[in-house]
Amino acid sequence: MSQDDFLPLRGYDHVEMYVGNARQAAHYYQKVFGFTPVAKMGLETGIRDRASYVMQQGNVRFVLTSAYGPDHEVTRHHALHGDAVRTVALEVRDVEASMAAVRQRGATIEQATEAFEDEDGVIKTGVIRYAGDTRIKFIERGNYRGTFAPGYKPIEARPTEPAGLAAIDHIVTNVYLGEMNYWVGWFRNILGFSQLAHFSDDDISTEYSALMSKVMENGTGKCKFPINEPAEGRRKSQIDEYLEYFQGPGVQHIAMSTGDICATVRRLREQDVDFLRVPDTYYADLRDRVGDIDEDFAELQELGILVDRDDDGYLLQIFTGPVQDRPTMFFEVIERHGSRGFGVGNFKALFVSLEREQERRGNL
Ligand code: FE2
Question: What dihedral angle (degrees, nearest 10) is formed by the CA atoms of 174, 176, 181, 183?
């Protein structure tokens, strides 16, 4: 770790989403994605204004929150953005020191350090503003033994059969045209992150998918935040579509890692996860593109899993469709074999194979 890592992050702690109906969203994440509900807050725990469900699978933790009334920050956020990520929580050893460091570097403070206590100990948090209405929360839980946080009670239920999702790999944000470099600088200056330049191939991605992307990561590489902005392309940018329906910048996708992507995707497909369709033409020259891999090409094709290779190794990935009616947030499942990239090669390969299909239909 370099001497200027003034913000040692232990990793992603959780992601909180504001949703229209937290009870039903919890059911969806349980039955479709294999999360176990582990804790809850709401009327029965003495919280009068909102309900939250903590969903856990491996080290991935989502908090799903809805408010009980119309005149509430959660309800207004939901009216504007739909079901959406409000907070990305990062675990730190010392919230006070972290907040002091980012404040001094110019972060916009949304909530100064606060301590929350119950019989299981103390949790400290501090919150800063990030892109659009998204925020980053620092959380210190070294002195807490409870299930999640004060105010929550554990849910005593039989654990859900997991789908193999193990950890959050990266969290991608969409911003307006011309703002990407601002946020690159923000991560560098405020949080001390650096750019993974090698994997931000904006030339290739511009031509084929009408987006520009740069990846910022912290000193340990545990927290990775790619940032996308729209670019002039041959088609309407998917980033423009997101920004229009989300009503501004926000989290586009959360990538979750697995140790066995074929088993995970098979399970998720059985549970009705809606993955993006990959044309068979994508697989026609896959072996030539990526060389030898441990997985069976026929199984990857059957399941619609994508492969990308770079100097360090390869990765396997697949994307879901949007998980709400607005074409906004979706998920990615990823398995890394050495590669630290994000699948830039798949932009081109997917585009080319889609064109090949169009050609076959006589529409090109
Ligand atoms: Fe991704």
Answer: -60
Architecture of domain 9-154: Roll (3.10)
Residue 348 C-alpha to ligand 1 middle, in angstroms? Answer: 15
Distance 154 CA to ligand 1 centre (A): 32
339 C-alpha to ligand 1 centroid (Å): 13
pLDDT, tens digit, 9 for 90 and up, residues 84-135: 999 999 999 999 999 999 999 999 999 999 999 999 999 999 999 999 999 9
**pLDDT at residue number 358:** 72
Neighbours of ion ligand 1 (CB under 5 A): 255, 332
Same fold, 9-154 and 165-361: yes
φ, ψ of residue 132 to 5 degrees: the values are 60, -130
The rounded Å distance from CA 356 to ligand 1 centre is 24
Q: Ligand 1 mean position to 67 CA, how many Å?
A: 30
CA of 72 relative to ligand 1 center, distance in Å:
32
Element spanning 153, H or E: strand 153-154
Asked if 271 contacts 349 with a C-beta cutoff of 8 angstroms, the reply is no
CATH of domain 165-361: 3.10.180.10
- pLDDT tens-place string over residues 256-313: 999 999 999 999 999 999 998 888 899 998 999 999 999 999 999 999 999 999 999 9
Choice between 206 and 346, residue whose per-residue pLDDT is larger: 346
Distance 47 CA to ligand 1 centre (A): 36
**Domain boundaries defined on the chain:** 9-154, 165-361
- Residue 196's alpha-carbon distances to 92, 217, 221, in angstroms, are 22, 7, 10
